[in-house]
Write a structure and sequence with these properties.
Strand order of the largest sheet: 2-1-3-10-4-11
Largest sheet: 6 strands, mixed
Number of helices: 12
CATH architecture of the largest domain: 3-Layer(aba) Sandwich
CATH superfamily of the largest domain: Periplasmic binding protein-like II
Shape: globular
Oligomer: single chain
Helix content: 25-40%
Distance between the termini: 41 Å
Strand content: 15-25%
Radius of gyration: 19 Å
Structural class: alpha/beta
Number of strands: 13
CATH class of the largest domain: Alpha Beta
Length: about 290
């Protein structure tokens, strides 16, 4: 293995389908070579991205937004996000059909995301079951439902669970209800579900304006190459090409616009009101965060 130059900016990226358009320039010619001289990319689960930033072993991370409230000193890079303004398909709460939300006694929670769990805890307050315990679990629906009344799945495992919905019923005969958490959030609050943003703990001259421009340009190029991404990812995941295309174009929203910023404000306000997260606010002007 060749040595990694210390001068490169260390990026903690998510190893799921949904950020694929954001990563286009970092993974495809002609810009993957020049960007590789400037950035070191490591791929991991969303929760691990936040841990890397907090520990100082990454300079920029695509982090679950809940981490902004628990990790002092993080700054949001403008322009990019992973969000949903309706149905998202990759954030699921799955429960047995005979057990209503208010009566659930336990939820097996995929440990890959902090933010989805925070959103879901807020929703459980609205569903009249604020104290239901979340049990950390690996993302396997059958195993999760063996130890809890419901399960939270995110990312690629959630997409595959939806694809396997009919097969699972044929195999088990068990009636399950699949709640799309972004859709539930929109119905309950009217707000956009913002999952993740590029964030940095770096100081000094390491992160100048050109860094944010690199990430925005990569997103723009990725959104122009959706068909190529669909072809790539259809070989990585057992999901039909049309599902991947719809997911990247209709379910995920990649621009950190005013509606997303308002969604984040609402999320942090409700998270503080319910005791899910510490109080946290951020300033849009200059993209500087305050605690």
């Amino acid at each position: 293995m060749k040595d990694i130059p210390h001068s490169r900016i260390r990026i903690a990226a998510i190893n799921f389908l949904n950020p694929a358009p954001l990563m286009w320039d970092f993974e495809h010619p002609p810009l993957d070579g020049p960007l590789g001289q400037r950035y070191q990319i490591d791929r991991m689960l969303p929760s691990e991205c936040a841990t890397r930033l907090a520990s100082g072993t990454a300079d920029i991370g695509l982090i679950p937004i809940a981490a902004l409230a628990t990790t002092p000193g993080l700054r949001i890079l403008p322009g990019c996000t992973i969000a949903s303004k309706g149905r998202v398909r990759s954030l699921l709460l799955v429960r047995r059909g005979h057990q209503p939300l208010a009566a659930l006694r336990s939820v097996a929670a995929d440990t890959a995301s902090r933010t989805t769990l925070a959103y879901t805890r807020i929703l459980f307050h609205r569903w009249g079951n604020p104290g239901v315990p979340f049990l950390p679990a690996a993302a396997d629906l059958d195993t999760m439902l063996q130890r809890a009344d419901a399960a939270i799945l995110i990312g690629d495992p959630a997409l595959m669970a939806l694809e396997e919905q009919a097969n699972r019923f044929e195999r088990t005969g068990e009636e399950l209800v699949y709640h799309d958490l972004a859709e539930e959030w929109r119905k309950a609050t009217g707000l956009t579900f913002v999952s993740a943003v590029w964030s940095s703990a770096a100081r000094g001259n390491l992160l100048d304006k050109s860094v944010a421009e690199d990430f925005i340009q990569s997103r723009n190029h990725g959104l122009k190459n959706i068909d190529a991404l669909v072809a790539e990812w259809s070989h990585r995941l057992p999901i039909p090409e049309e599902t991947i295309h719809s997911y990247l174009t209709a379910n995920i929203h990649y621009v950190l616009d005013d509606e997303c910023i308002e969604g984040m404000r609402g999320f942090f306000r409700m998270a503080a009101e319910t005791g899910v997260l510490p109080e946290y606010s951020f300033s849009v002007e200059g993209w500087e965060e305050t605690r």
